Amino acid sequence: MLKERMTPEEIAHLTGYSRQTINKWVRKEGWTTSPRPGVQGGKARLVHVNEQVMAFIHSAQRVCEAAAPYAANGNEPPFHTLLLTLADEMTDVEQKQFTTLLLREGISGLLQRLGIRS
Predict the structure, then answer these.
(1) CB 62 within 8 A of CB 18
(2) 47 pairs with which residues across the strands?
(3) For residue 45, what are the β-bridge partners?
(4) CA 80, CA 88: separation in Å to the nearest integer?
């Protein structure tokens, strides 16, 4: 999920690239950054996630399976959290196709296609 400001590590996790690659993009693309609070030395930065950064993140995402937000104690996250995670992981094209399917088939039709409802 995108926040207003993110560390290079967080962006790396979203895209599947390394932190070093993200830092290279920060310099090359001239992204706006600010010092990370509580970290001395001046090198730790937060990237301001504006339209340019969001577009770059979405276009640069590697095809990789994101880690599922499962709890270590075996408790599953709430269903709505899983749906939001699914939506966040989908590309724009996938989101449009899924929206079209939902609008055309409805929830009952989707459940029927999945074999959940007859």
Answers:
(1) no
(2) 6, 33
(3) 35
(4) 12
Mean pLDDT by 10 residues, the chain (118 residues): 85 84 90 84 84 83 51 66 81 88 88 85
Bridge pairing between strands 45-48 and 5-6? antiparallel
HSE-CB of 111 using CA atoms within 13 angstroms: 6
Of 91, 88, 83, 20, which is closest to residue 60 (Cα–Cα)?
91
Token output for 75: 């408790």
Determine the Cα–Cα distance for residues 63 and 72; give it in Å rounded to an integer.
25
Cβ-Cβ contacts under 8 Å for 5 (sequence gap 6 or more): 34, 46, 47, 48, 49
User: What is the Cα–Cα distance from 60 to 24, expressed in whole angstroms?
Assistant: 13
Distance CA 89, CA 1 (A): 9
In angstroms, how far is CA 93 from the centroid of its own chain?
15
The model carries a pTM of 0.49
> How much is the pLDDT for 40?
67
Q: Give backbone dihedrals phi and psi of 114, rounded to 5 degrees, phi first.
A: -80, -5
What pLDDT is recorded for position 61?
66
